[in-house]
Amino acid sequence: MIRELESQGVVSKTHSPFNSPIWPVRKPDGEWRLTVDYRALNEVTPPLSAAVPDMLELQYELESKAAKCPTICHGLIQAALEKGEAPEHLQYIDDIIVWGNTAAEVFEKGKKIIQILLEAGFAIKKSKVKGPAHEIQFLGIKWQDRRRQIPTEVINKITAMSPPTNKKETQAFLGAISFWRMHIPEYSQIVSPLYLVTRKKNDFHWGPEQQQAFAQIKQEIAHAVALGPVRTGPDVKNVLYSAAGNNGLSWSL
């Protein structure tokens, strides 16, 4: 990858007292992503808080029937879209989605946004543009019929996991499932035995209680229900379920 970029004139050899070490990372599709290792610089740099949208709030705004999701590779996208007076859209860092009542409407909105970004100097990979479609993945979540679902590949990955053998593996498993906790009734109570073995003051001991929790949460993930907007109106009845126990509290609507 480095030799190819050098032959194209993108990078060149140099001698300097300063160094920004590049670090090629293999992407899931087999291609390479060029990153820079700024860990040493970050240690001595005051943090700058960025106004990153809340993923949950964005998800509640996705109530479209058809959507198109171009994924862009570089920053300053928001400024370019505002300057170009882009049609209504949602953006999370470098992921963008538009929606509409018809496929034609979605196509035109997506076309306009792509045009704005290209004119601003951004490069857009054709394979990253999806839709218009009634089913699409955005922010790693499957969206269909105005509802959010756990993608099949995520379910398969989680259900194929073997029981952890140490604290680090347990934390990795909890990290993989915690993002989907909204889909699991009484999630906190189910996984509480798993959190017990990750505490610093506790030695790692995988017993029957942990194994039962491990198996149960995988089953819950495999059969998780889709979530949609809360319906309101005089003829709609919403029920709030709550539960309390020695291991925690939970509720669902």
From TrEMBL:
Superkingdom to which the source organism belongs: Eukaryota
InterPro entries reported for this sequence: DNA/RNA_pol_sf, Rev_trsase/Diguanyl_cyclase, Viral_Replic_Matur_Polypro
Protein name, UniProt field: Reverse transcriptase/retrotransposon-derived protein RNase H-like domain-containing protein
